[in-house]
Amino acid sequence: MRLLLMSNSIAPGRGYLEHAHEVLTETLGGVGAVTFIPFALKDHDAYTEIIATGLRPLGVKVIGAHTAKPADLVRRAEAVFVGGGNTFRLVQALYRTGLMEIIKARVADGLPYIGSSAGTNVAGPTMRTTNDMPIVQPPSFETLNLVPVQINPHYIDPPPDRVHMGETREERLLQFLEENDVPVVGLREGTWLERSDAKLTLGGIDAGARLFQRGAEPRDISPGTDLSHLLSTRPRFDATDRAR
C-alpha cells in the first residue's frame, strides 16, 4: 500500500500542492499520469485543471475521472488522487459511480492513493469525523478503510481566548469517542500521513498533529513520528459505554 493523506492542498504563501512536492514525488515515483477524483466540488473541469497545474512541475499528467466512465478510468489508473471539498458529496458520488469498492480493491493491490481534505477523510473506515455540512445524503457513512483509524483534516486547536462560544474541534472529537472506540488523528494544516505497507508515519510541518484515543488524554505528535502501531487497530463504532 502506498498512501499519502494530506490535511490540505495549499499552504500560506505557497502555490497549490507546492508545500508537498517532495513527498508527492516520492509517492508518485514512476507514475506518468494520475486519475483525479473531483467529485467533492461541483465544477469538475475547473477543479481538475487546478490539480493539473499543481502537479505539472512534477511532470505528471492529470486525467479527470469525470471525463469518461469513472470506473473504467480508475481500473486503468497508474495512481489516484481524491480531492477535497464536501465529504458528503464525495461519498455519495463514490457510491453512485461504484468507485468506493474499485478504489479499495486497486489500492490493496498497490495503486498509489493520494487524498487531500475530504479525500483524506474517506481513507478511514468512516466519514464520521469530517468537518463538513451534510449537503447531500450518502447511502452510508462507511468509506475506504485504507487505514483503520479516523482522520480529522484541518484540525484547529482551541482558541486561547475562547471568544468563540461553540464547541471546539477537540470537544467534538471527544464526543465522537464517547460513542465510538477508534483512534482519531487530527491533522493540522501542512501535515499528512504516509502509509507504506505496514508502516504509517506522520509528515509535514512542525505543527504536527493531535492524537485522540478513547480513555486517554489527547496528545500532540510531531512530524516523523512512527504511528505503525495504529494499523493494528480494530475499530468499534456505536460502541457506547452501555454497549461495553
UniProtKB/TrEMBL annotation:
The keyword Ribonucleoprotein does not apply. Residues 235-244 have a biased composition (Basic and acidic residues). It holds the Pfam family Peptidase_S51. Signal peptide: none annotated. Its EC number is 3.4.13.21. It is found in: Cytoplasm. It comes from the Bacteria. GO terms for biological process: proteolysis. Its main location: cytoplasm. InterPro entries: Class_I_gatase-like, Peptidase_S51. The keyword Cytoplasm applies. One of its GO terms (cellular component) is cytoplasm. GO terms for molecular function: dipeptidase activity; serine-type peptidase activity. It catalyses: Dipeptidase E catalyzes the hydrolysis of dipeptides Asp-|-Xaa. It does not act on peptides with N-terminal Glu, Asn or Gln, nor does it cleave isoaspartyl peptides. Keywords: Cytoplasm, Dipeptidase, Hydrolase, Protease, Serine protease. Residues 214-244 are annotated as: Disordered. Belongs to the peptidase S51 family. This is dipeptidase E.
